[in-house]
Prior knowledge:
With 97 residues, this protein is mostly helical. The chain has a domain at 33-96. The chain is built from 5 helices and 2 strands. It is globular. The two termini are 23 Å apart. The model has no long low-confidence stretch (mean pLDDT 91).
Amino acid sequence: MVTRPRLVENPLSPAQAAQMTRKLYGSRRLRKIYPKRGTVIRTIREGASLGIKGPLWYDLYLAVTMADAGVRRIITENVDDFKGFPFITVISIKEAV
């Protein structure tokens, strides 16, 4: 998404996005979370119960992965896509600052 001019005011080039990703992934100061063994099936169950359709499944999978890791609150620009998930509290960046 950060490389798509239609969605982002100042998109990154693919090379810039790759460089940023490598830095973040390689950082020892950032804690990373990964899906657990049951994350996929929990996502399927949540998606079915919430009536999720289309690309929103990717946000749901991310939210379930976060919940599995104990993350209960997120700060994001993408409030609308996450606010429908009852197991996570969503705060906009503007609210957090």
